[in-house]
Amino acid sequence: MVWGDPLLKVTVDYVGSAKPALGLKAEQVELKDNASVLDLLNLLAEKHGETFTTQVYEPKDADLKPYYILSVNGLLTNQLNNMETELKD
Fold first, then answer.
1. Residue 37 CB neighbours (<10 A)
2. Is the four-CA dihedral 16, 9, 47, 59 of positive or negative sign?
3. How many other CB atoms are there within 10 angstroms of residue 78's CB atom?
4. CA separation for the pair 53, 48 (Å, rounded)
5. CA-to-CA distance for 8 and 1, rounded, in angstroms?
6. DSSP state of 81
7. CA 19 to chain centre
8. If you write DSSP's letter for every residue of 2-70 in order, what string do you get?
9. What DSSP character marks residue 83?
């Protein structure tokens, strides 16, 4: 039996300059059910702090840093619902 809010597990693969900056190839994070790309980016910014916010995404900005792209299951977010794209396990 699951108590509390249902969670979904998302795998984040890092490529390009994000990989050495964060020292990670990939990581798995848990988010609340119905979480969006924006929710994921805010969680990663909180988790990784200044390294993430200066390299990839600053929560007060509307989008990723200009030299980054983000895909969900192989599709660019601009082909989906941008930052409001809902994530699934």
1. 20
2. positive
3. 13
4. 8
5. 15
6. T
7. 14
8. --SS-EEEEEEE--TTHHHHHT-SEEEEEEETT-BHHHHHHHHHHHHTHHHHHHT--TTSSSS-TT---
9. G
Answer whether residue 36 shows pLDDT above 50. yes
Residue type, 70: L
Q: How confident is the model at residue 63 (pLDDT cuts 50, 70, 90)?
A: confident
Tell me the two tokens of residue 45. Answer: 């910014």
Q: Which of 32, 2, 78 is nearest to 43 (CA)?
A: 32
pLDDT band per the 50, 70, 90 thresholds, residue 52:
very high
Q: What is this structure's pTM?
A: 0.89
Q: Are the C-beta atoms of residues 60 and 53 closer than 8 Å to each other?
A: no
CB of 71 within 8 A of CB of 77? yes
